[in-house]
Specification:
The chain is of the alpha/beta class. It is 36% helix and 22% strand. The protein starts with a strand and ends with a strand.
């Protein structure tokens, strides 16, 4: 497949690029600073673009089978970036009539898992309170997706870890895995790539966790 990866220098973005190349896909990695992209491969095109301008982004998404985005706030200071940049991506994709889009959201944006213990519910409330601006941004991003013409999927991981790929995790379409507290960035990337061709995930939030 021909894939475009946004946020390609981030933790999840670089994993998407690496795994997609290993699987034989052609990958366009959209970056602001090419020097920060450490992944290389014969099927890789590095595209430098201003993500605030949909016209600049259009060549990077044109004629692609799917766009995968690792864009998002790295801290509370960045709250607002996910919704703002996703609007640009949607404008570019709709102009080029590219439909499949997968983005990274977060577990607290989705519904609470059925049967979670009190400690898990309490931790969820605490995290949601501390990072309320970040999650408000992600909810706004998901609202933008729902109002768009794209075939979107919002992947909602819990706490992210820098650990090796396992390929073994749980997913819940429209929900949240019970006691799902952690997942490696590499496995989030793996899940996103696996969902590209999964019609059950289209126009859905998908919880993913160990």
């Amino acid at each position: 497949m021909k894939l475009t990866v946004l946020g390609a220098t981030g933790g999840i973005g670089q994993e998407i690029v690496r795994q997609a190349l290993d699987a034989g896909h052609q990958v366009t990695a959209v970056v602001r600073d090419p020097a920060r992209l450490t992944v290389t491969g014969a099927g890789l095109e590095v595209f430098r673009a201003d993500l605030t301008d949909p016209r600049a982004l259009r060549p990077a998404v044109a004629a692609r089978d799917a766009v995968l985005s690792g864009l998002g706030a790295r801290s509370r200071r960045d709250a607002g970036v996910a919704a703002r940049l996703t609007r640009t991506v949607l404008d570019a994709m709709e102009a080029e009539q590219v439909r499949r889009l997968l983005v990274v959201s977060a577990s607290p944006v989705g519904p609470a898992a059925e049967g979670d213990a009190f400690a898990d519910r309490a931790m969820r409330r605490l995290i949601s309170s501390v990072l309320k601006d970040v999650y408000a941004d992600l909810r706004e991003m998901e609202d933008e997706l729902a109002a768009s013409a794209t075939d979107w999927t919002a992947v909602r991981p819990p706490r992210l870890q820098n650990k090796p790929l396992t390929g073994s995790y749980r997913t819940v379409v429209g929900g949240t895995p019970r006691k799902g507290r952690f997942i490696a960035r590499a496995d989030v990337a793996h899940a996103m790539l696996a969902m590209i061709d999964d019609p059950a995930t289209v126009k859905q939030g998908v919880g993913v966790a160990y």
